Amino acid sequence: MLGFLQGFSYGLFMTCLPWLLVGLVNPALALPVAAQGRLQVVLRYCLIVPFISMLLWLTSLWGGFSPSLLGWLAGIVAIPVALPIERTLRGWLARRRERRREAQRVAEVRQRRAEEERKAYEAGVIVLDPERPPEGADDLVLAMCRTKQHLLAVNRPDLAILADRLYSRYRHVLDVLSSRFHTGELAFERSRGLVSQVCLGAVDTLTTMASQARGVVSVDGDYVRRRLAKGKQLSEEERAALVRRLDLLVETEHRLNELSARIESALTVLDDTAVSMARIETARPQASVTTDKALEDLRRFVEGADRYARKD
């Protein structure tokens, strides 16, 4: 065994100079990573490999001086055999690190979007389930469910919240109208028709947002930014393509923000409608006099209550 190690160390040491020359001409042939340069070639074949060879030779001297031919041949082929194995191992480790970074990035994105969803939700917002629409849902509510499903399909839950908010406002306004008017009244039908038109316009806007987001759903902004961060390693053509891809994301996001502003305007109109309708007094008053008149009469009665005391 020691003779094999001694022969292996001789063969390994003999191949350092040829591989050094090969690496100086073309580093990609002598290194496991193509991105490395000639300095790594010098370090590898002038320091690292000779050190390993010397260490093996010193270890083998415990058995005397008896290098074996098999060990010498194994040392000669050690580097050409080890390079593909090292390349494969490094590639596997790099892919593993990339998968971990990707999983971490996805988890961070999900956490960030969940936080955005939590912040975006208002008190009293009813969450729509596209798979199970509310019982007795009309065509407008079903359209809201479909729109929310489209937004979720393009990985934009932050925009899908707008459908929930729109549905909540719609339900609230209808409840207010039902409490102020009878279902068959002309005012109720007229108000409900106007509210439905506003909501349909908002649904159309949400549908447009889903279409806009679908156009860039395959563009990974984080990947583009990581590639652009490499700087000088990119060619001009690749840099221009990445910059254009990033511009598409920015333009689409700007357009989505403009459409979101339209949705907010529609929600504000629905809030105004609910407040205005809630102020309308349509019920018949139960008191025969006004509240102020009743308070004044009660006050005078209390002031003269002593007259009703019993006198013994």
Helix content: over 70%
Overall geometric form: rod-shaped
Secondary structure tally, helices:
12
Order of helices and strands: HHHHHHHHHHHH
Kindly state the mean pLDDT as a whole number? 80
Beta-strand fraction estimate: under 5%
Q: Could you list the spans in which at least 5 consecutive residues all have pLDDT below 50?
A: none
Q: What is the rounded Rg? A: 39 Å
User: In whole angstroms, how far apart are the ends?
Assistant: 132 Å
Keywords: Membrane, Transmembrane, Transmembrane helix
Transmembrane segments: 12-35, 42-63, 69-89
Protein name: Cobyrinic acid a,c-diamide synthase
Organism: Halovibrio variabilis
Describe the overall structure.
With 312 residues, the protein is mostly helical. The protein has 2 domains: 2-97, no CATH class; 121-279. The chain contains 12 helices and no strands. α7 runs parallel beside α9 (186-215). The model has no long low-confidence stretch (mean pLDDT 80).
